[in-house]
Amino acid sequence: MKLTASTTKTLKNGVKIPILGLGVYKAPKEETEHIVYTALKQGYRHVDTAQFYGNEREVGLAIARFLKDTPEFTRSDVFYTTKVSPTNHGYEQAKKSILESLEKVKEIGYVDLFLIHNPMAEPEQRLGTWRALQEFYEEGKIKAIGVSNYSIKHLEELLNWKELKVEPMVNQYELNPWLLREDLCAFCESKGIIIEAFSPLTRGFRMKDPLLQKVIEKSYPGKSPAQILIRWSLQKGFIPLPKSSNEQRLRANLESLDFEISDEDMKTLTHENDYFVSNPNFDPIKNCP
């Protein structure tokens, strides 16, 4: 099947999520609206932000402007994700922050996916945050809910919670050919949890990897390391969320949908014994109690 930026996966509640997203972490606030608008015009249909990024408002404005300027598209054609900040854990604080996030994007009416950004809190606070998300989901103001940076232990804590009404639909965490997290991926798949891959380009640290370069020279001349890494995530069944503020690179990242990596090259690219986290000071999956 030919992949496009509008190709979707289906969450366990039936919501459709595009298979490639644009991440806007560290996108300058004053540039975010232009970056997102440009990406949407190029063909992106999925944008991932967070309270912590400080640019929810700008992403919402970009989506609203795109929909106004291109009336052939409707709100359901663009998927918007945000996340509850680690500083807003706990029922009351999370509820307040979710209301603020909804207000910031009032022009687009609702949030498609709201995640817990990471589990860095006490269990009672984590579960309180989920309680708040459940309530907004049941009211229809959020179309889907999930988590980010959750380990198997954190997922089991949530799935076994006696007050659980809505199971997590997504887990977003760092993945790349040198960071497989096979046990976590298998667990998520067994529970019907869609996997999103942030930092699929290793924040640039592995772009000049000799083996990656060799594979490109042998089989994919003209393709960039970024395109190979994005395509690797797609073929692993993940939803990659590459980020860029450069118009040419935004377009090039979309072109990851236009080719396939052979089974042999996928095996060569996949480093089963590595554990490369692009920010070693931030690995809640491994370090959060």
From TrEMBL:
The record marks 83 as: Lowers pKa of active site Tyr. Belongs to the aldo/keto reductase family. PROSITE patterns: ALDOKETO_REDUCTASE_1, ALDOKETO_REDUCTASE_2. This is LANO_0D02366g1_1. GO terms for molecular function: oxidoreductase activity, acting on the CH-OH group of donors, NAD or NADP as acceptor. The active site is at residue 53. PANTHER family: 2,5-DIKETO-D-GLUCONIC ACID REDUCTASE, ALDO_KETO REDUCTASE FAMILY PROTEIN. Residues 27-270 form the NADP-dependent oxidoreductase domain. Keywords: Oxidoreductase. Substrate binds at residue 117. Coiled coil: none annotated. It comes from Lachancea nothofagi CBS 11611.
